[in-house]
Structures are given as structure tokens and as C-alpha cells.
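ok so I'm stuck.
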Amino acid sequence: MPDGESRAHVQRLTVPGLFPPPGYAHVAVATGARLILTAGATAA
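replied:
not stuck anymore, here's the structure
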């Protein structure tokens, strides 16, 4: 990794009271220098 860059840490959480999501998490908590938000994106 080049100097000055750091690794991001992502914690994915699901909410116990909601229906379990198929292949994704309800919440993502990220640390690092960059934040990117998307909504409704799925991967096959």
C-alpha cells in the first residue's frame, strides 16, 4: 500500500427485529478516509 493510504474497516450489521436480508446487511459502519453510499444495489 502506498505511503499515506490506510485500510478501511467495514462492519456489517443486521437488525434483529427485521426480516433477514438475502446476501446483504441492513447497516454498514465504515472507518477510513472515504465514504461512498449506495441504495438498492444488489450483486448476483
